[in-house]
Design goal:
14 helices, alpha+beta, 2 domains, 4 strands, 4-stranded antiparallel β-sheet, Gyrase A, domain 2
Length: 260
């Protein structure tokens, strides 16, 4: 089972982003702005960063997650996001003994009896080969070459708010692979608990593009799901028409129900 948990974050991150944004236009000292900025003004300045596409202030708020039970196939996609820090379970030094050996089974394979049978047989043979290599005194760093990408791993991930916005844009999109899409939605769910003013306006790239070009109030994923807003952009970055975008967002978010 995939687990995503936010374990550390910048405590007043929303206010820090807002004050940093205002600092770029105000000659008054940081402390002056910090002491006087109200909660309403925090929201106003966060919106201002979206309107002006001025996202460097978002980099000052930082978040650390523990992600467990994802496949190596998924973690390989995750670490491609380079403005982040990662610490992952090492297969060089931690032997994948039976007690800790598990795999992620793609839902489309699970639903197909013949495919699932082939999958399970392949996993079993790979693990047997791994154990035989260890018994032959082959070091784990070499024996691991026979392990499948489906094998589960755990990883600590630290990203700032700007990179999270970018990450959500790419990985909550329906075009993203199902497993990392689930991880991305769960990460967004976690940061929404602590900093909703920052992250309620994040989501798939269609949301990001809309919010940097839209006149008036920015939109949220929740607005789209509930049909409360209409897109003004003609097409999303994945070339979906504005009429199709809400359907696409709903399909993407449905991965949460699929993996419950």
């Amino acid at each position: 089972m995939i687990k995503v948990k936010l374990i550390r974050y910048t405590l007043e991150g929303e206010k820090l982003v807002a004050v940093a944004a205002k600092q770029s236009l105000s000659r008054k000292p940081f402390e002056y702005q910090w002491e006087r900025m109200s909660d309403k003004e925090v929201e106003t300045w966060i919106k201002e960063t979206l309107k002006r596409n001025h996202l460097s202030p978002w980099e000052h708020s930082v978040y650390t997650f523990v992600i467990e039970g994802i496949s190596r196939a998924c973690s390989h996609q995750l670490v491609r996001h380079r403005i982040a820090s990662y610490t992952q379970l090492s297969q060089r030094f931690a032997k994948m003994i039976k007690e800790y050996f598990s795999v992620v089974k793609p839902p489309r394979i699970v639903k197909n009896d013949e495919a699932l049978k082939n999958f399970n047989e392949a996993i079993s043979k790979a693990y047997e080969a791994y154990v035989r290599l260890l018994d032959l005194n082959i070091p784990p760093e070499d024996a691991r070459y026979v392990l499948p990408q489906a094998i589960t791993t755990k990883i600590v991930v630290t990203m700032n708010a700007r990179e999270l916005r970018h990450f959500f844009g790419l990985r909550t999109c329906f075009k993203a692979q199902w497993e990392i899409r689930y991880v991305a939605w769960k990460m967004r769910e976690e940061v929404m608990k602590v900093h909703p003013l920052l992250f309620k306006w994040t989501g798939p790239r269609c949301i990001n593009v809309e919010n940097t070009s839209r006149k008036g109030e920015p939109i949220t994923v929740e607005d789209v799901i509930e049909d409360k807003v209409k897109f003004t952009i003609e097409r999303c970055p994945e070339n979906m028409s504005k009429e199709q975008i809400p359907y696409c967002v709903r399909r993407s978010l449905n991965i949460i129900n699929t993996l419950k």
